[in-house]
Design a protein that fits this description.
With 475 residues, this protein is mainly alpha-helical. It has two domains: 401 residues, Growth Hormone, Chain: A; 53 residues. Helix content is 80%, strand content 0%. The protein has 19 helices and no strands.
């Protein structure tokens, strides 16, 4: 197959970015609609957590399978299937009669979403083969995160205020249909030269680990941390994790090739993604409730309040991609970790009358940090495995993001619920402070890992791991 022309490559990048746009938009819009969902469907805080985490859990569980499936049956075909399912799931969410059905339809969205971003990243990786050009393309990809976040709160707030929370899911439909048609016309089909075999046992174990641990964290405050059901979930999650490691190490074509984690930069990027997206998930969840239930803002005004964060992310993300291409990942990671920690620190003293200028400053600094972190994570991930397994490489990076988001909502939500007492709205600001401290800690972890995983010795481990993998799976 001939190499695409520069114009064709840019068009393919734009089409792939549409999938990221609707997924990012969906996350932001859903968070801004949480108070309306709570009022309309009578949902508890844990119910709201499940609206978010039902999506992220299923998504995280299926991402690696989607990546390896795309390498086997065709990346464009998998990408289009994901678009169709995500669009259909969005329509179903808009007609959900109660909270249970909404959570169920969110899982349909997640099945489709699992086939979008990692597969699109795999398409981009195989389209932009020159490292510097690829890093810039990934920077554009990261900028779309900021763009979707910038539009999501305002658009979501306007839709919720004017048409109700059900309308937030409608916006995915025209974008999904457009991306489906454009992919059919312009995106070339591609497959791995040697795709991995399917691994249903590994897939089941991954789902079991994520589902049991997240369920225990979300339901622990209400059921009691020492209750048999919660303790049993933690034990089952630990047992499933041990079984997963043992089983995957014995497979010829494992779902998760654990040898990639011998690369210190790759392992570091995975942990950084969990911390960064855990902070993002916790921030979006807590901040939406705080602005609307504590400060009494409308959905539209709450969306406008988050614009400094989203716009800063949109501006900084492409710059981060250029820095990674020119100087490597260390500087963006250090800046990201420091900015996230500094941004969250003032919110540890959050009160109902916290000055708006302080909120805006924290949001903007957080947007800077989050904009910096995405490109080095992705670039390290897709560079850590042979090109022939680009779908699996991108899927592991995307899985770590979704695991972080799920854990962020689960852990921070559980901490806040444990601190609530009496009238929740009045006590939410004070109860959330421990959650903000967790996010400060995540920022510091990103900073430290950014230094430790990007040095000369760390890069040497990446070279050894890559060489070992290429002996088994030629690039």
């Amino acid at each position: 197959m001939p190499e695409p022309t520069p114009r064709r490559r840019l068009l393919i990048l734009a089409i792939c970015c549409l999938s990221l746009f609707i997924v990012g938009l969906d996350a932001t819009i859903v968070n801004i609609a949480l108070p309306s969902l709570r009022a309309d469907l009578g949902a508890s805080v844990s119910g709201l957590q499940w609206v978010i985490d039902a999506y992220t859990l299923v998504l995280a569980s299926l991402l690696v399978l989607a990546g390896s499936t795309a390498d086997r049956v065709g990346r464009r075909r998998t990408f289009q299937t994901g678009l169709a399912l995500f669009t259909a799931g969005s329509l179903l969410c808009s007609i959900a009669p109660d909270l249970g059905w909404l959570i169920a339809f969110r899982t349909v969205q997640a099945v489709g979403g699992s086939m979008l971003n990692p597969v699109a990243m795999s398409i981009i990786t195989n389209t932009f083969t020159e490292p510097r050009e690829r890093a810039r393309a990934i920077g554009v990809w990261g900028g779309v995160v900021g763009l979707s976040m910038a539009l999501g709160p305002v658009l979501g707030g306007a839709l919720v205020a004017g048409l109700g929370w059900r309308s937030i899911f409608w916006i995915n439909v025209p974008v999904g249909v457009a991306a489906f048609v454009l992919a059919a016309v312009f995106v070339p089909e591609s497959r791995a030269a040697r795709p991995r075999r399917l691994d249903p046992v590994g897939q089941l174990l991954v789902l079991l680990v994520l589902a049991t641990v997240t369920f225990a964290i979300i339901e622990g405050p209400a059921a009691g941390w020492a209750s048999p059901g919660i303790v049993g979930c933690f034990v089952a999650g630990a047992a499933a994790l041990a079984a997963l490691i043992r089983y995957e190490n014995r497979r010829r074509d494992p779902l998760l090739d654990l040898r990639v984690f011998r690369s210190v930069p790759f392992s570091g990027a995975t942990l950084i993604a969990v911390c960064a997206f855990g902070t993002l998930g916790g921030f979006l969840f807590l901040n939406s409730l705080y602005l609307q239930e504590v400060r009494g803002l409308s959905a539209l005004h709450a969306g406008l309040y988050t614009l400094p964060m989203a716009l800063m992310t949109a501006v900084v993300a492409p710059l981060s991609g250029r820095i990674v291409g020119a100087r490597g990942p260390r500087l963006p990671l250090v800046l990201a970790g420091a900015a996230i920690a500094v941004a969250m620190l003032p919110l540890t003293l959050l009160a109902p009358d916290t000055p708006v200028r302080l909120l805006f400053a924290s949001y903007a600094v957080f947007g800077f940090g989050f904009g910096m972190v995405n490109a080095p994570i992705t670039n390290t991930a897709v560079s850590g495995l042979p090109r022939a397994q680009a779908g699996v490489a991108a899927a592991i990076a995307s899985t770590s993001r979704q695991v972080g988001s799920a854990l962020g909502v689960a852990v921070i939500g559980a901490v806040v619920v444990s601190g609530l007492g009496g009238a929740a709205a009045e006590r939410l600001a004070a109860a959330s402070r421990s959650g903000w401290w967790i996010m400060v800690g995540c920022g510091l972890v990103i900073l430290v890992l950014g230094v430790l995983t990007t040095g000369r010795r760390a890069r040497a481990t990446a070279e050894r791991a890559g060489a070992e993998l290429r002996e088994v799976v030629p690039a």
